[in-house]
Amino acid sequence: RWLFITNRLAHDFPEFAPAAATASGVLAVRGPRGAWVVWFRRERAHAVTWGGDPRKGLAVGDDGAARLHPRRSFAAWREEVRGRSRPWTRADRASAAEAGRANLLDALAAWQDREVAQLRVTLAMLFDQVTDAVALTDPHGVVTFWNRAAEETFGRRAATAVGRPIGSFLEWGPHAAAFPAALAGRPTDDEWTVVRADGRSLALVVHVQSLRCATAEPLGLLCMFHDATARREAEARVRALGDAIPGGGIYQMVIGPAGPPALPFVSAGFAALFGMTPAEVGADPAAVFAMCH
User: Fold this and answer.
1) Distance CA 149, CA 127 (A)
2) pTM, whole model, 2 decimals?
């Protein structure tokens, strides 16, 4: 539906009754990208003259029921009509449709294009200075920006990434589905193993989310990648040390914003200390906490 028109908005939508003085009439034309151009007409209160008061033909009988009776008075009766504007004519509709399609909506679309372009330039200037890999895409997932850190992280120059769908290059494996999911409004915060352009595996902490303008229209994706290789190597050394401790153990605790703490790593020494395998401890941390306190 590309056209909406009424000269009694408060009657059709009672929640707009407080605006009746300035917006009793509405003519709206929908344009590209879900944008609307809207014309308003103020209320025009006017009096209607009837041949007689239509309410005087009703009388209540002894049984309490209302019945119609011959009207005893045919004196003229005036009623004031509120909440209506001057009606929209066919010429009004045609003019609005023509103006909206040919001029106003085209101008609005051009303004939105300029806003989007300026936003992308600003984001590019900002993210080119960060040390983590950052990629920006358009609403179709095509890369529009690839910072210097992304070139170093993935071993791919910006010239070979910009202009291509972000899920079409490198070895994203099962993670490629995260990009269309983020465009649909489901962001990703996860740890991925990705294969670089030179074939080397890379551990990454990944954040992917959609970018939207003030009208909630999707502008594209913001993709941030942090190299977690050094952290994984340090965790591996700590785990090896924990497994080598005689009669003792080491565990890694992660406390999230909600829910109980998790134990992603438990050393082999816990089996001797608590009679539970590392897998059992990781699956039920509360059991170990109960033994300790």
Assistant:
1) 9
2) 0.48
